[in-house]
Design brief:
The protein is an alpha/beta fold. The protein has 25 helices and 15 strands. The strands form four sheets. A six-stranded mixed sheet has the order 10-9-8-11-12-15, sandwiched between helices.
Length: 652
């Protein structure tokens, strides 16, 4: 009796069993696969690491042979190989010449509430890692004794002293490279300016000479402006290293995992890269899907096979597949835009609208100072091509994050944004009042007078406010013009300038020279009357109907007002002329060593009554040196939460 099963039937059964076996192997114990499709870096023991130009550049950097800076930062989207690059670089450096420290800033987030705990915690981890390779010394004990010897010194200075006096001195034959990963975790604690500024100063210091053996590499998912809010500083942080995409010519390490399912792994990789654009995680994920699938026959159209696989297993119903296979890659990109605070929704909408233009094949040239460009780059959705134009990063993103997706996410972000325009800083009148008292001629240890520093500050704030828009298609701005005047005498001088170009601020400072006292109320009252425009009161209804605008009055001072009682009385009177605290905000910006911080902090807590009898808090205060997020942050600070105060608030 002849068997009903042919040789081909048995062959198909065997191939099916092989597919099931490979799939079970990939599904057991997490995702136990040849390819790396889990979070975290690729360990040295795994064979799938693909080198890029960034590998050579980072190896060159850690030699510390450049004189300008010993700080390198690698800012890139999630799952693009930042941590893997760090692990590989450290593993390839000779231990007799280098000591490499790996710090994950996510572990230090809870320590960022004060300099004392942050810098001690960082040093403590550095000492623990050094102890792993130097068991002859108790480095943690050494740190504790050294740290407690000089409590009068600032934490940053004690950190530097320990690195110089202990680490670099005791390890005088080695270069010390500190890698700080997940640096974006610093941003939420508003300490990025202080921390990054300190790290930058360490990397540029050549005194003592031992400092030349210290290098720092920062890695994270952040825009340059997230790390240092002064963009001119951010551009000059140090050496910026771009990761780039995987290239077909370097992908031989990925071949091995495909050898059971194809006789031509190079060809398979070629067509995988056509879909992934060389995005590292997607490339590994697609390789994994091929490796656990059926064998590709020699006669098959490899391109068609990969096309069908990408569409069926990645793009179609992508959210379900992203979760089913525990990849979460595509969902992470979506979350970059929608899992944000209310204050970030407007800028995310602006970024999505820019992405729509790119999807529609509009040529958008990359601009270093454009935050929407950076937002898209760090999301991973777009890349810069060789001609410096922004393009969608790969075909998978193009078919997942479509025009329909953009419209849906815009609608999600817009929910609630326009519900109450008073919660936003846009479409307002803005008045700037500049302290013209004689004390502004003083210098606080630098070459510039306070008057000159005020000129630079007001110029910068004016430019920021005039350029800011809400990211909508109608591009609603904070204002088109700013009223600027000065105050000193116990009367109003009669000069109010209406400025639409920040370059004109210099002329105001040239025409008005510092003298006399610091009486603010006469000038403030005059500006307030301009805003009131003959009304007895301004209400929410007036703003909604368009007959009035809410207003910001920004006062720049280097000391304390000479008419404090009159100023406090003015605050009470103003509150009685409005029916909501968001209609008027008086922002006080302090500059110089003479600012009476305690007094202005007390005013920040002040609560009067508005026209309806409700609590009304309209004073917002901060010092220039603490204003890390700039004037826009100060304007936004108390619109939704009037109890919110500055970072270093204290009534001691």
């Amino acid at each position: 009796m002849r068997s009903r099963y042919t040789k081909d039937t048995f062959k198909n059964i065997i191939e099916s069993l092989q597919i099931i076996f490979r799939w079970l192997m990939s599904s057991s114990n997490g995702l136990n696969t040849f390819y790396r499709i889990e979070a975290g870096g690729i360990p040295l023991t795994e064979l799938t690491y693909v080198q890029r130009d960034a590998d050579n550049k980072l190896r060159q950097f850690v030699q510390l042979e450049r004189a300008t800076s010993r700080l390198c930062f690698i800012l890139a989207p999630r799952q693009t190989g930042k941590t893997s690059l760090m692990i590989r670089t450290i593993g390839n450096l000779p231990p007799e010449q280098f000591i490499c420290i790996q710090l994950d800033f996510q572990e230090f987030s809870s320590s960022a509430d004060s300099d004392e705990t942050l810098y001690y915690s960082l040093l403590n981890e550095i000492c623990r890692q050094i102890s792993d390779i130097d068991s002859d010394n108790n480095w943690v004990k050494l740190l504790n004794s050294s740290w407690n010897e000089t409590p009068e010194l600032a934490p940053k200075q004690r950190f530097k002293n320990f690195i110089v006096d202990q680490v670099l001195t005791r390890k005088d034959d080695k270069k010390i490279i500190i890698f700080i990963d997940e640096i974006q975790n610093l941003i939420g604690y508003k300490e990025q300016n202080s921390f990054i500024g300190f790290i930058k100063s360490l990397s540029q210091s050549n005194r003592p000479a031992a400092m030349k053996r210290l290098g720092v590499v920062l890695l994270g998912v952040a825009r340059p402006s997230d790390l240092v809010t002064d963009y001119k500083v951010a551009l000059n942080l140090g050496e910026r290293l771009e990761l780039g995409s995987l290239k077909d010519s370097n992908c031989e390490p990925l071949w091995q995992g495909l050898e059971e399912v194809t006789n031509d792994p190079a060809k398979v990789i070629y067509f995988i890269l056509e879909w992934t654009g060389g995005q590292p995680f997607l490339t590994q994920a697609l390789c994994h899907l091929v490796a656990v699938g059926r064998r590709i026959q020699n006669s098959e159209d490899v391109k068609e096979y990969i096309d069908n696989l990408a569409i069926a297993r990645v793009i179609t119903d992508w959210r379900r597949q992203d979760r089913q296979y525990r990849l979460s890659h595509l969902e992470e990109i979506e979350n970059w835009f929608i899992r944000v605070d209310a204050s970030q929704k407007v800028e995310k909408i602006a970024a999505l609208r820019l992405y729509r233009r790119i999807l529609n094949k509009e040529l958008i040239r990359f601009e270093q100072n454009n935050q929407q460009h950076w937002d898209l780059l760090i999301s991973g959705l777009v890349v810069r091509n060789e001609d410096e134009f922004l393009t969608v990063a790969n075909r998978i993103y193009e078919q997942v994050f479509t025009l329909k997706w953009v419209k849906e996410k815009e609608e999600v972000l817009q929910e609630g944004i326009m519900a109450d325009p008073l919660n936003r800083i846009y479409n307002r009148d803005v008045f700037m009042l500049i302290d013209q008292s004689a004390s502004t001629l003083k210098k606080d240890g630098g070459e510039k007078t306070r008057w000159k520093l005020l000129e630079e500050l007001v110029t910068g704030h004016t430019a920021t406010i005039l350029e800011r828009d809400d990211g909508s298609e109608s591009q609603v701005k904070v204002c088109d013009q700013i009223y600027i005047t000065t105050f000193n005498l116990n009367k109003f001088r009669g000069n109010v300038y209406l400025i639409s170009n920040p370059d004109n601020v210099e002329d105001i400072f040239l025409e008005n020279r510092p003298d006399a006292n610091t009486y603010v109320v006469p000038t403030l009252r005059h500006c307030f009357n301009i805003w009131m425009n003959g009304r007895d009161k301004v209400t929410i209804q007036d703003v909604k109907e368009g007959s009035a605008k809410a207003a910001f009055f920004i006062i720049y001072t280097d000391g304390q007002f000479d008419d404090t009682l009159a100023f406090e009385q003015f605050i009470s009177e103003t509150c009685l002329k409005i029916d909501d605290h968001r209609l008027v905000k008086i922002l006080i910006v302090g500059l110089g060593k003479g600012v009476n911080v305690k007094y202005f902090d007390t005013l920040d807590l002040r609560n009067d009554k508005d026209a309806k009898g409700d609590d009304c808090s309209i004073i917002v205060f901060d010092l220039v040196e603490d204003l890390e997020e700039g004037i826009i942050e100060l304007m936004q600070r108390q619109l939704r939460d009037p109890s919110k105060v500055r970072k270093n608030f204290s009534l001691k």
